[in-house]
Amino acid sequence: MDYLSVAIEAAKEAGKFLKMNLGKVKNIERKREEINLVTEIDKGSEKKIIEFIKSKFPNHSILAEESGETSKTSEYKWIIDPLDGTTNYTHSFPVFCVSIALEYKGEVIIGVVYDPNLDELFYAEKGKGAFLNGKKISVSKTDKLIKSMLATGFPYNVKENPDNCVEHFVNFLMEAQAIRRLGSAALDLVYVACGRLDGFWEVDLNPWDVAAGKIIIEEAGGMITDFYGNKFSIYTKGVVASNGLIHQQMLEIIKKGLNKNERR
C-alpha cells in the first residue's frame, strides 16, 4: 500500500471506532489545563491508527497527541490526532474527526482528515491537488472580509490568559460577515480548503491539529501563514489560513490585537 492509502484506511477505521463509541465515554481525564480533556476513546483510536501504520511501515517515526513522539531516527514521521474535537465528543456533539499527516524530511507530503459523522474524507498529496470523497476541491473566491465567514478556536489556557485570543475575536467580529467556533481545528482547516469557510485563525495549536489541514489547504489553492505572514510551520503556535484573497486583510486584523497586547 502507498502512503496515502495507508493514511486513508487508518483514518476510516479510527473514524468507524469513534462513531461506534459516541455516547459511550466512561472515563474522562484532564490534562494540565482543567478544560483539556482526554478519554479512553482518544487512546483507543490512537492505538488503532499507530498499530496499522506500524504494520505497514515499522521503521517510521510517530508523533501522536496522546502518546507523544516515538523514535526520531526515520526521515518519515506520521503526525496523528486520533480524535480532534474531544470536548465535542464527550458531549455527543457530532463535530469531530480523525487527522493523519505524513512528514518527510520536515515537510508534510500527505494529509487526511476524516469526519465519520458526515462520512467526509478530505485528503491531499503534495503536488496532486486536494479532494473530498474523490472530488477535487478548491478554496472560495470571496475577496472581502465583510463578505467572509471565518472560524476560530480558543486555547485551553483561555481562562488564564483571555487577552491572548479574545482581542482577535472581537476585532474580527467587527469586520467579518460571520464567525463560527466548531471545536475542531482540523475541520476548520479543511472547510477553508473546500470553500465552506473563507478563513480561519487560532492562537495556540499543536502539530497534530494542523499538519493534515495545512497540506489540504495548500493543495486546494489556499494560503496558510503564521500571525506575521511568514511561511507556516506546523510547529508554529499561531495560524492564519484563508482562500488567499482575504489573507492580507486577516493579517491586518491580527496585527491590531498583537499590537494592543504588546502595549499591555
Automatic annotation (TrEMBL):
Keywords: Hydrolase, Magnesium, Metal-binding. Mg(2+) binds at residues 65, 81, 83-84, 209. Gene3D superfamilies: 3.40.190.80, Fructose-1,6-Bisphosphatase, subunit A, domain 1. Its cofactor is Mg(2+). PROSITE patterns: IMP_1 (PS00629), IMP_2 (PS00630). Its EC number is 3.1.3.25. GO terms for molecular function: inositol monophosphate 1-phosphatase activity; metal ion binding. It is an enzyme of class 3 (hydrolase). Pfam families: Inositol_P. It catalyses: a myo-inositol phosphate + H2O = myo-inositol + phosphate. The keyword GTP-binding does not apply. CDD domains: IMPase. GO terms for biological process: inositol metabolic process; phosphatidylinositol phosphate biosynthetic process; signal transduction. It comes from the Bacteria. The keyword Nucleotide-binding does not apply. Belongs to the inositol monophosphatase superfamily. This is Inositol-1-monophosphatase.
